[in-house]
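Notes from hallway chat w/ T.B., transcribed later so I don't forget. T.B. wanted the structure written out for a chain they're using in a teaching module, and asked if we could keep both sequence and structure tokens in one place. Agreed to drop them here.
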Amino acid sequence: MAAARFTGVHTVAVPVRDQDAALAFYTGPLGLEVRFDAELQPGFRWVDVAAPGAATSLALVRAGDGLPTGVDTGIRLVTPDARDAHTALTDAGADVGELLLWDSAPPMFSFRDPDGNTLYVTENPAG
């Protein structure tokens, strides 16, 4: 049997209670840009945000019974300067974890969005 052929990851869903509040957080302190925001059918809004120039986006999807908030998303955002990103998110009032400075890995930290979803930030000087 042949394997399916995939060429990338397009979108990762993040469950949120209030899409407008989430959009303000993801485009404000996180600096992501809106790629798509539309009501596809009555009561079903699709909101996509992404880092400028990034191939992969985050879909801010409305949480429900089968899709709770407050999850560890496993999403790793990349920044050229983890210290600056840590300071900016802390100053914006985000729930930010400790800046980890290990000899064997790049600087990194975790944070939670307003819905309690955990995301991670790691430094890559190339971007």
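Follow-up for T.B.: The domain at 11-123 is CATH 3.10.180.10 (2,3-Dihydroxybiphenyl 1,2-Dioxygenase; domain 1). Might be a good example for the class.
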